[in-house]
Specification:
By secondary structure, the chain is mainly alpha-helical. Helices cover 63% and strands 3% of the residues. The protein has a two-stranded antiparallel ribbon.
Length: 256
């Protein structure tokens, strides 16, 4: 039999795999609540963003329903048995945003050295259109992309320009959009717009260090906006008690 390439398993995929298996094994029945995001992170020994990525993947897959402020509930399994969302979403949102923070921070610093009047006019034009847009919506996301690509294009390197566009485009998928639906609002977009303005001002001032810091702060703040809790609440009165213990395979064998 021919050898097959070994694909590294990203952490959120491993978490989603374990939770899916526990659901399939009846540890968490349909209609029941999973432990809170905080409890899952503590029991699994991982970060809450990693748990959040796994829960979003399972929601897109149709295995759970997230009710912000109430809890995460197990749903009837879909007819499609393959874990589509987890297998097709290569990178998690936080991994992408951290990559962008590093790459685009360096690009902004270099753009501050090379910025030309036509580039400033292009940035001002897209910022003006962003201010006139009622977000969040697809048009505003496209303008957000245009802003970041304009800055990359200042360097005159087609590879970097395409890279920035490609990294941004990773958010245009059901997985990332589902996460955004919980945390994006006109208020968060207003915050992002102010951050874009700060990036523009730092670049135009030709202060490379300030430009790098402003871009990194913007993308770091984006991570923070997506990191807000789904709401860790106690089980409703009268509901079956939930345990924060996440059974492992050894535990299940002992109970078999």
């Amino acid at each position: 039999m021919p050898l097959k390439a070994i694909e590294p398993r990203r952490l959120y995929r491993q978490i989603a795999d374990q939770l899916r298996q526990l659901i399939d094994d009846g540890e968490y029945p349909v209609g029941g609540r999973l432990p809170s995001e905080r409890e899952l992170a503590e029991a699994l020994g991982v970060s809450r963003p990693s748990v959040r990525e796994a829960l979003i993947a399972l929601e897109v897959e149709g295995r759970v329903r997230i009710n912000v402020g109430s809890g995460i509930y197990v749903t009837d399994p879909p007819k499609q048995s393959l874990p589509i969302a987890v297998e097709t979403a290569a990178e998690g949102p936080f991994e992408l945003l951290r990559a962008r923070e590093t790459v685009e921070g360096a690009i902004a610093a270099e753009a501050a050295r090379l910025i030309a009047p036509k580039d400033i006019a292009a940035l001002d034009d897209v910022l003006s259109r962003m201010r006139a847009s009622d977000g969040p919506n697809g048009a505003l996301i496209a303008l957000d992309r245009e802003f970041h690509v304009i800055i990359a294009a200042v360097l005159g390197n087609a590879v970097l320009t395409e890279l920035v566009g490609h990294l941004f485009d990773q958010r245009i998928n059901p997985y990332f959009m589902q996460l955004a639906s919980y945390f994006e609002s006109p208020q968060t977009w207003a915050q992002a717009l102010a951050e874009h303005q700060a990036v523009r001002d730092a670049i135009v001032s030709r202060n490379g260090e300030a430009a790098r810091d402003a871009m990194r702060a913007h993308l770091s703040n984006s991570q923070e906006r997506f990191s807000r809790s789904f709401g860790d609440t106690a089980a409703p009165k009268g509901a079956a008690p939930q345990t924060s213990e996440i059974p492992n395979s050894k535990t299940r064998r002992k109970h078999a």
